[in-house]
Design a protein that fits this description.
The complex is a heterodimer of chains A (226) and B (355). Chain A is mostly helical and 226 residues long. Chain A is built from eleven helices and no strands. Chain A has one domain: MetI-like (MetI-like fold, Orthogonal Bundle). Chain B is an alpha+beta fold and 355 residues long. The chains are: A mainly alpha (226), B alpha+beta (355). The interface between A and B is medium-sized, with 18 and 21 residues.
Chain lengths: 226, 355
């Protein structure tokens, strides 16, 4: 069965996924909204940057993050100036890495949900005296609800499954940055197959159930577009 | 009170360049072929389409003056889109309340109940927007716009997405709107039948420019405009029910130029009606014919004539001041020696009651 440290890893994983999803929804919603409405001709560049984690080896992203967040890196040294710790090998560092890594899984479903609404309902709301912010919250968000569900579940599930980025910047510190996927790797390394089975099977089931929920609830939305 | 609108809007393959003054009462039809800029003009008035060159005043309110441009939500207008665009995440009642809630209380002149009754949608309030028929959706959309007590109602071909049956279903509501509310309406359409039935004034657009504006009766019969030409050319006549003949089952309709006899219509005495007389259905004689099956014969004076194609002529008549069109052959005109000022008799073969 699961050991104490496995349970801790499970808890850290869930906490990381939850925090990452919340941060992504808060940051990703305005970003996706802006991307779906702007007529800026170079928006494709930004879209490509957001989609990068889909194709990039996670270790590459992790490597650059490690440098940026470490004591000599721009973010890490900035933290030290303000009297904090470098972010590498901390939970906060993990959250930053996960947010970047799972960004496309949140922004893309939201953007396609906002695109699907079209201009018309928002124009209607404008002629019914609703200001831009009012229109966003009373028309765009409710109409994009399936997109929000997809974004939240995919962001959460994808964060739970991440390995490479976490390994690079988290450093596998039990109780602080050791997440499930790395715990499984450790078990396999020392031939503890039965514990690896438990964790892997659990992760597989959980991921499957979450995806089933998304696909069942909104069949008409594209989940992730390359 | 008037609506003054000056817009210069450039789009990729199209320029809208208009300078208009429209009376801010009754129904003004914005008429023209598709692609002539009708919808763009309406959207510019709503503030949905903007350009830095423009001026818009509705009664005493200035909505745009160059770069000063109120956003749509700050303009007291109602807009009915071509396809009913109800919010699918709200039921009918919530749709109706959406605009109403956002209007300051002192500006509420039309009550929700009034709008609901006028469009006869009380039985639909609990329904979801996607459970309504096309006609019902459009009625809800109109009521939703009315419930904001707009100072002007903009309608962009509200019937064009509906089939003939639904059009017939919704027309009476549009007419009652016209009769019961004092809200001026701008009605975009390319269907002359709709326009003749509903409008009081008309703006004729062609390729982004205003070709002519005026009262609907004049515009339909002006020989210099395309409306008076072609098979659909027709005059609009305002008449009132004068009486009924029970023996022959007829109804008499009086207008300034005389009395029409039409087959019985179940309408009260003095009820106003609109009649449409198609130019092809009006023939001319020099003497009053007694031995004829045609009942509707009126003395008229030839006002103007213009050729139509090689063989035909459109004659504009004045029936005691009421304009009417007649389309006859050029040969007939020559035989009758028609010329402006000549006294003739107009024989009207068929007449259509519009309301």
């Amino acid at each position: 069965m699961l050991s104490e440290s496995d349970l801790t890893a499970l808890w850290i994983t869930l906490k990381l996924a939850l925090v990452t999803t919340l941060v992504l929804l808060v940051l990703g919603t305005p970003l996706a909204w802006w991307l779906s409405r702007t007529r800026w001709r170079f928006k494709f560049i930004l879209e490509a940057i957001i989609a990068l984690p889909l194709v990039l080896p996670p270790t590459v992203l992790g490597f650059y993050l490690l440098i940026a967040l470490g004591p000599q890196g721009p973010l890490g040294s900035m933290m030290q100036v303000f009297g904090g710790q470098p972010l590498a090998f901390t939970f906060t560092g993990l959250v930053i890495g996960s947010v970047l890594y799972s960004m496309p899984f949140v922004v893309q479903p939201l953007q396609s949900a906002f695109n699907a609404i079209g201009d018309r309902p928002l124009e209607v709301a404008a002629t019914l005296r609703a200001s831009a912010l009012d229109r966003f919250f009373t028309v765009a968000v409710p109409l994009a609800r399936p997109g929000f569900l997809t974004a939240a579940v995919l962001g959460f599930a994808h964060t739970i499954g991440e390995f490479g980025v976490v390994l690079m910047i988290g450093g596998n510190i039990p109780g602080q940055t050791q997440v499930l996927s790395i715990a499984i790797y450790d078990h396999v390394e020392v031939m503890e197959y039965s514990q690896a089975h438990w964790l892997s099977g659990g992760l597989l089931l959980m991921s499957f159930l979450m995806l089933i929920t998304v696909y069942a609830l909104n069949r008409r939305f594209t989940v992730v577009q390359p | 009170m008037t609506i003054q609108a000056r817009f210069h809007i450039k789009r990729q393959d199209f320029t809208l360049d208009v300078d208009l003054t429209i009376p801010s009462k009754g129904v003004t039809a914005i008429f023209g072929h598709s692609g002539c800029g009708k919808t763009t003009l309406l959207r510019a008035i709503a503030g949905l389409e903007t350009s830095h060159k423009g001026f818009l005043q509705v009664d005493d309110m200035i909505w745009q003056d160059g770069k000063y441009c109120l956003p749509p939500e700050k303009r007291a207008l109602g807009y009915v889109f071509q396809e009913a665009s109800l919010f699918t995440h709200l039921n009918v009642e919530k749709n109706l309340q959406y605009g109403l809630k956002r209007v300051p209380e002192q500006d509420c002149k039309v009550s929700l109940d009034q709008a609901i009754d006028l469009l006869d949608i009380r039985h639909l309030l609990e329904r979801r927007a996607d459970q309504l028929s096309g006609g019902e959706r459009q009625r809800v959309a109109i009521a939703r716009a009315l419930a904001t007590s707009p100072r002007i109602l903009l309608m962009d071909e509200p019937l064009s997405a509906l089939d003939m049956m639904r059009k017939q279903e919704i027309m009476p509501y549009l007419e009652s709107l016209h009769d019961e509310l004092k809200i001026p309406v701008l009605y975009v359409s390319h269907a002359s039948g709709e326009v003749a039935r509903l409008a009081d004034h008309m703006v004729l657009l062609d390729q982004g420019r205003v070709m002519a504006t005026g009262s609907i009766d004049d515009m339909l019969t002006r020989l210099d405009l395309p409306l008076a030409h072609g098979d659909k050319a027709a005059a609009l006549i305002h008449a009132t029910v004068a009486g009924h003949d029970n023996d022959y089952d007829l109804t008499y309709l009086d207008f300034a130029g005389g009395r029409f006899s039409v087959s019985h219509k179940d309408l009260p005495i003095n009820h106003p009606v609109r009649l449409r007389v198609i130019a092809r259905d009006v023939s001319l004689t020099l003497e009053y014919q007694t031995h004829t099956s045609i009942l509707n014969i009126f003395p008229a004076i030839v006002e103007a004539m213009t050729p139509e194609g090689k063989s035909q002529i459109v004659v504009k008549l004045s029936l005691n001041g009421v304009p009417m069109l007649s389309r006859i052959t050029r040969k007939s005109a020559a035989l009758l020696q028609l010329s402006p000022g000549k006294q003739v008799y107009a024989q009207v073969k068929t007449v259509a009651l519009l309301s």
